Amino acid sequence: VYVNGHCIPQHLVEKAEKFAGTIEPGDYWYDSKAGFWGVMGHRCLGIIPPFIQEFGLAMPANCSGGDTTVYVNGRQLHRKDLNILVGRGLPATRNKSYIIDIYGKVMDEATKKFVVNLGKLAPTVERKRRGFGMQVPEHLDDE
């Protein structure tokens, strides 16, 4: 299992699974602030709990294949991810960086000022304090 470009030892993967759910072998990116995750080079595939210590490695800005010039927690958003978040209220302003938490609170990264609340991003994950795992789908559809 690779997360944010780093090989994670099996004993740490097993520790992380207590929070994330079952983690199948793969090359993933993980946003430790909001819990977003995906396969490296592709859009977001789900949300697991944030702040999983074993995966708290710096996320590469280009990890999700984004080209939108809109950044969330350091990750340039894939256009599909941007469309979903804009549908929930995120401004579509180009060349902007935001900080988003699992509760949907959005702050401007530069000014640290509150922008909008998108609503709870993953209420079931939040309530259960456990994710539904990470796995590479048979077909990665970024369209």
Model description:
The protein is an alpha+beta fold. The protein has one domain (about 1-130). It contains 3 helices and 10 strands; from the N terminus they run E-E-H-E-E-E-E-E-H-E-E-E-H. It has helices at about 10-20, 80-85, 125-130; strands spanning about 1-5, 5, 25-30, 35-40, 45, 70, 75, 95-100, 105-110, 115. The strands form 2 sheets. A 5-stranded mixed β-sheet has the order 2-1-3-4-5, with no helix packed on it. It is globular. The chain starts with a strand and ends in a 15-residue tail after the last helix. About 35% of the residues are buried. The mean pLDDT is about 95.
Quick structural summary:
By secondary structure, this protein is α+β, with helices and mostly antiparallel strands. The protein is 18% helix and 24% strand. The mean pLDDT is 95.
List keywords for this structure.
single chain; 143 residues; alpha+beta; 5-stranded mixed beta sheet; 24% strand; EDR4-like
The major sheet is characterized as: 5 strands, mixed
Which descriptor suits the 3D outline?
globular
**Count of discrete domains:** 1
Q: What is the strand tally? A: 10
Compressed to H and E, one letter per element, the order equals EEHEEEEEHEEEH
Provide a count of the helices: 3
Computed structural class:
alpha+beta
Strand order of the largest sheet: 2-1-3-4-5
Mean pLDDT, all residues: 95
Rg (C-alpha, Å): 14 Å
Strand percentage lies at: 15-25%
Low-confidence stretches: none
